[in-house]
Design goal:
Blueprint (H helix, E strand, L loop, with lengths): L6 E5 L6 H17 L4 E5 L2 H10 L6 E4 L16 H5 L4 E4 L2 H6 L4 H14 L2 E6 L3 H5 L3 H13 L9 E4 L13 H18 L2 H6 L1 E5 L7 H5 L6 E4 L6 H15 L1
Parallel strand pairs: 1-2, 1-8, 2-3, 3-4, 4-5, 5-6, 6-7, 7-8
Helix pairs in contact: 1-2, 1-11, 5-7, 7-8
The chain binds 2-phosphoglycolic acid (PGA).
Amino acid sequence: MAMRIPLIAGNWKMNTTLAEASVLVTEMREGLERIEGVEKVLCPPFLSLSLVRELLQGLSIKVGAQNMHFEEKGAYTGEISPLMLKELCDFVILGHSERREHFKETDQMVNEKVKAALAAGLTPILCVGERLEEREAGRAEEVVVRQGRAALQGIESPQRMVIAYEPVWAIGTGRAETGEGANATIGIIRDMMARLYSEGIAQGIRILYGGSVTAANVAEFIRQPEIDGALVGGASLKAEEFLSIVAQTVAIKK
Ligand code: PGA
């Protein structure tokens, strides 16, 4: 089986002023740097990217953005382009359910963004996940596969990208999916990758779980064979808890 390096990404969402971002990074950078064998990614708000990057200079901890526009430049007031991000970070979260829900991002827009990120040399963290009513209607698999296929339209080399399975009902609710449940759905996403591309590509792609991951439940997910790490929201804003999540991941996956 392909060796996939585990990845833990912290999605800070619309939290932290510059001063708060500085405190948070300073609290966790040394501890994070000491933990090897896992890729660590911090995704602060756009305005803190430059500062966080500077605070992490020379360290192995990577920086990611939480969104971007798909055009390189132009008359898109208020937007941030892949070229701008390229100067500041390596990763970009795309298609997060909060973007789909509150900012009306469609599968087509997510597809444009994934293409643009790959073209710019950024690593997209593509989020997919079903809403509660879709789950209750027994449509979780269908929704996740539809979102995944749509986001990958026209993409020939998806090797670098990361996928995050985040059931919408589990995000910020304290009601996480079970380890087995997340493992099963992530297995379905991997099968989809094998069908769209090849078994080799499917086995090489990292797929994360996200949705109410904490230091108390992360082990349940990381123990699962299909799950390669986590996209952590709320718990990534607490230095000690985030460090514990990263440390537990290495201890289990090594
Ligand atoms: P949460 O958020 O960990 O706060 O549930 C996860 C996410 O939205 O990426």
